[in-house]
Amino acid sequence: MPRPVRFVVALVAVAMLAVTAFAQEPCSHRGKLDPMYCDDNRDLVADPPKDRAKLASPDTLVFTYAPVEDPAVYENVWVDFLKHVEKATGKKTKYFGLQNYAAQIEAMRSGRLHLSGYSTGSTVYAVNLAGAVPFAIMKDASGGPAGYHLVMITQAKNDKIKGVADLKGKRVAHVSQTSSSGHQAPVYLFSKMGVVPGKDYQIVYSGKHDNSILGVANGDYDAAAVADTVLERMINRGVVKASDVKVVYKSPVFPTAGFAYAHNLEPGLVGRIKDAFYTFKFQGTSLDKEFGKQGRVGFMPITYAKDWESVIGILDANKVVFSRESEDYKRLQKRGSE
Questions:
Q1: Per-residue buried b or exposed e for 78-93, using 16+ beta carbons within 10 Å of the residue's own CB
Q2: Cα separation of 328 and 320, whole Å?
Q3: pLDDT grade, residue 68 (50/70/90)?
Q4: Comparing C-alpha atoms, which of 144, 148, 155 is closest to residue 66?
Q5: On the CB side of 49, how many CA atoms lie within 13 Å of its CA?
Q6: By the number of CB atoms within 10 A of the CB, which of 32, 34, 48, 137 ranks highest?
Q7: Which residues contact 85 (CB under 8 A, 6 or more apart)?
Q8: How many CA atoms lie within 13 A of 233 on its CB side?
Q9: Residue 238's Cα: distance from chain center in Å?
Q10: CATH 3.40.50.2300 describes domain 52-145+256-334
Q11: CB atoms within 10 A of CB 200
């Protein structure tokens, strides 16, 4: 057989192998998921790989928590819990401190992050862009899911801002484009109230809830949209005084951070991870010191499609596009360590 013919035959063979490989893992439905993932069962989250060779069971489980504040604060907070995960799974654990929401999403997408507590709004981005599978949320003493509110705060001595209507013409801190309470919820809720963020007032992205809160306390912003739970924790730690700020708006309740695993983790390992979460009690642990004052006592199961319905609805209403090429997401990636 002449060499050019052999070359063509080889190319055809390679192409046939690629087609065969693709045919072995067909995807009938993706919904809003990135092309890397499939949702054949239509539960809104990525299915595990059909090819068992693509399932992961790492020696060390890498975990992080939403960077709503300085990551260094949370590394010690999660020490006792990660020890519990090690006993339950037989795996080592490592806390991976990340500086912003985009870095957290990209880390799971790339396979460097296996478990994560995503902020409420970022959970939806992580599901669609990183194959995150939410499975747990913190619970309160009643056994129900813990919740939080979007609050609009201003300096306590500011008599010019008494409500949302007074934000017109002001300089207002939002957290980031993916933040639910720090951006998406105020855009949706305030617009319905006749005040359109970015049009009726100037949006200044602070990067984190603690930056927004400290910025208001120090007079850098006229007001800020933040999660009330972060404000409470900062007051409890003495980072800001309750007398420094005042709340001029409080939203309906939203779910707190969603805890998710990477979609490609081995099912048996996923089961042990879930057991670790659901059996851990906060009382007397490092988590109790941070979250106990807010009534958090442990974790409970969630169903993403049901429990995140209101959050997804707000993002849909804001016409959010879940793409790494979207302008909002590109801006989020460029924000660095803010």
A1: bebbbebbeebbebeb
A2: 9
A3: low
A4: 148
A5: 13
A6: 137
A7: 61, 63, 91, 93, 115, 273, 276
A8: 23
A9: 26
A10: no
A11: 17
Same CATH topology for 52-145+256-334 and 148-254: the answer is yes
List the chain domain ranges.
Answer: 52-145+256-334, 148-254
206/335 Cα distance (integer angstroms): 9
Which residues partner with 64 through β-bridges?
116
pLDDT in tens, 290-332: 898 888 999 999 999 999 988 898 888 888 888 888 776 766 6
Task: With a cut of 70, say whether residue 120 has pLDDT above it.
Answer: yes
List the structure tokens of 181: 């309470």
Q: Give yes or no for a contact between 172 and 205, defined as CB atoms under 8 angstroms apart.
A: no
Residue pointed to by tokens 């009938």 = 28
Q: Which helix (H) or strand (E) holds 147?
A: strand 147-155
SS3 for 129? Answer: helix
Give the up-direction half-sphere exposure of residue 4: CA atoms within 13 A in the CB hemisphere: 0
3-state SS, residue 197: strand
191: left (phi over 0), alpha (psi -120 to 50) or beta: alpha
Question: According to the CATH classification, is domain 148-254 in 3.40.190.10?
Answer: yes
User: What is the distance between the alpha carbons of residues 96 and 291, in angstroms, rounded to a whole number?
Assistant: 20
Q: Which residue has the tokens 């995960």?
A: 85
- The tokens of 103 are what? 């870095």
Please name the residue that has the structure tokens 């991870």: 273
The DSSP 8-state label assigned to residue 46 in this structure reads P
Q: Which amino acid is at 47?
A: D
Q: How confident is the model at residue 25 (pLDDT cuts 50, 70, 90)?
A: low
pTM: 0.77
* Nearest CA-CA partner of 104 in 179, 49, 31: 179
User: Rounded to an integer, what distance in angstroms lies between the CA atom of residue 154 and that of residue 158?
Assistant: 7
Q: What is the pLDDT, as a whole number, of residue 98?
A: 85
Q: Is the dihedral of CA 11, 13, 14, 18 positive or negative?
A: positive
Answer for the pair 44, 305: CB distance below 8 angstroms, yes or no.
yes
Is residue 17 classed as helix, strand or coil in its secondary structure?
helix
* Tokens 């060499």 -> residue: 3
Among 311, 312, 315, 333, CA closest to 324: 333
